[in-house]
Specification:
2 copies of one chain form a homodimer.
Chain A (H helix, E strand, L loop, with lengths): L32 H15 L10 E6 L2 E10 L5 E2 L2 E2 H14 L3 E13 L4 H18 L2 E10 L7 E11 L15 E4 L5 H11 L15 H9 L6 E3 L5 H13 L2 E5 L7 H10 L13 E4 L4 H9 L8 E7 L6 E4 L5 E4 L12
Parallel strand pairs in A: 5-6, 10-13
Antiparallel strand pairs in A: 1-2, 2-7, 3-4, 5-7, 8-11, 8-12, 9-11, 10-12, 13-14
Helix pairs in contact in A: 2-3, 5-8
């Protein structure tokens, strides 16, 4: 029998020790510092020459002269159904959005399930139906799939992976490394809604009104922004780790500073109340239907108008500016004339939020 | 807050009751009858118009005039390390092989992890290293990824999803519906090795010699077969459900019968012994480095020679013929001159084998 891959499995040593822990902790899945360390210090060295230089949310590939975006995401949200959506909506919209954030038109999705033995088939059916509906709304086709089942002690209902393929039009060049000093930072709407919706539901909290997840496909918004003719520099959907993680990543990738004006951040009162109760920073809470756009100053108004004209971007606004100072760092100007540093979250503020 | 997808989550009823069970059972992940029912009676109706007509192992897409193969697979094998390989090898080779079975040259893979809190980082590192090595051997790049962490009660070490993209050359038309009466059925080597390797290791069984998994990337074999100029009709890697499941699916998709000659089936003695001890049928045991090829009779010898000239196909042989009789059914001629029907396995003979 031929062994094509022959490794000395006993000898693997992590090239750089990961933050004082010999085992996986929840923070490794949080989309913050620890997630970044896992990629940089474990996956990239282990993959070696086979890895792309960056293992980002989405890769841009050139095949037969066409530029494709390719993305993957797994979903383990708990509970599987929450106000405003389900794991099924998230699984479709999440990958649609990852593709859209590189300026691609999403076309095809794969759907792969890891099911826990004993999960109600009716729950699985409702989830699959949500996926079909979300795919139709987003205009993507579910073209290939896989189902695995694990015993009841080794799973938790339904885990879903979606991978997706989209096509990037000529002339579109959206990249986290393209933010420039002077660029405007825009957000398409309210911050922190998805995370609070799931947490409230999980913890049985009530805040007067029910907070519903903002899960939605954002490629329509992106298409409208591209149609303005503006040179969009960076797009990002601030999911795990929230606006704080996304802006920090962009600031580092582009080596610019980002200045936010705290009073311009659109945080709904319900989110503010919930975050205060739960000890969370709204800027670190996941969104599933919002995007950040970094655009040249001369295009800011025009792009903002395009966002506001779209049903999903009615509350869009400008929240800050890219600056040459403090490169790699995000700073918020507070109401009292002070400033505070908005750090990249270390670990997992809200486990299993998506 | 806008709800883009608004479903009545309470009303979902499975259009056709699935085999006397209201819940997911291990058999739904077995690649046999129950897996097929789940796709046909649950996923396809629930996805509705968003679904491709067949949710197969691999989809063929046309983008910008190029034909792409797109495939996804999740891996939950237990244990994660076994003689001859690990979940990391399987995750890369499995998707490489799914792409290769539509005649594609595999190019790009995504890697998505669902990690159980508490998993040793050194184990994850060894798995990732195996993936990097397997990707290099297969000539594919790992271009995008995702990591989620679930609490220790909700996972089991490492689950991996890989999705992949490959390019199909002009003139290649490999499709499970293309088997024709008279076609030869070839197999690239010994049957049942992977399943027995994992089961022996899991159950602590010994059979004199250690049986090692046959996990391997098969696109090189496929390229050599294509290079013969033969019109390859169908290719399939007989993983879950084994040769029995793959041949049954082909027989149904092409509406042909398949006749096997039992004494020509290459089942190693160790596999035979293990299967007899475990009460398994070698034809239903998973392979991870073998392919079935269905080719026109006039090309059979030429393709067989090409297989045998490749290191992974040295024991390739002809095992049967497609016939006009008993369409959709696979029949084996036994040594005693009798015949037996090789059914599509119902559920899961060997849970968590890949």
């Amino acid at each position: 029998m031929q062994r094509v891959v022959d490794l000395d499995f006993e000898s693997w040593v992590c090239p750089v020790p990961l933050r004082d822990t010999p085992t996986v902790v929840m923070g490794h899945g949080g989309g913050g510092v620890m997630s970044g360390e896992l990629i940089e210090h474990l996956f990239l060295p282990a993959y070696g020459a086979a890895a792309a230089a960056e293992l980002g949310d989405s890769a841009v590939l050139s095949i037969g002269g066409t530029r494709l975006a390719f993305s993957t995401d797994s979903f383990v949200v708990k509970p599987m159904f929450f106000p405003g959506g389900s794991i099924g909506d998230l699984a479709v919209n999440g990958t649609v959005n990852d593709l859209a954030m590189s300026g691609a038109t999403p076309l095809f999705l794969s759907t792969a399930f890891i099911l826990q033995e004993g999960t109600e088939l009716s729950a699985l059916g409702r989830i699959a139906e949500a996926m079909g509906t979300a795919a139709q709304v987003a205009g993507v086709r579910l073209v290939t799939g896989d189902t695995k089942v694990v015993d009841s002690a080794s799973g938790d209902g339904v885990y879903i992976n979606t991978a997706g393929i989209g096509v990037i039009a000529d002339g579109v060049d959206i990249d986290p490394r393209r933010a420039r000093p002077g660029d405007a930072v825009l957000i398409s709407g309210d911050i922190g809604v998805h995370g609070v919706a799931v947490m409230s539901c999980r913890e049985g909290l009530e805040f007067g009104t029910t907070v519903e997840s903002d899960t939605a496909p954002l490629h329509g918004l992106v298409a409208d922004m591209i149609a303005t003719g503006a040179d969009l520099h960076v797009l990002r959907d601030p999911t795990r780790g929230g606006v704080a993680a996304s802006l920090n990543e962009i600031a580092r990738a582009s080596a610019v500073g980002i200045d936010l004006v705290e009073r311009d951040l659109p945080v709904p009162q319900t989110v503010r109340d919930a975050c205060s109760l739960l000890g969370l920073d709204p800027l670190q809470v996941a969104n599933e239907g919002k995007l950040l756009a970094i655009v040249p100053p001369e295009s800011a108004d025009q792009v903002l108008e395009a966002l506001q004209a779209h049903p999903l971007g009615r509350s869009a606004r400008r929240i800050g500016t890219c600056v040459p100072d403090h490169p790699g760092m995000v700073v918020a100007r507070t109401g009292l004339g002070g400033t505070r540093v908005i750090g990249l979250p270390i670990g997992e503020q809200l486990p299993r939020i998506c």
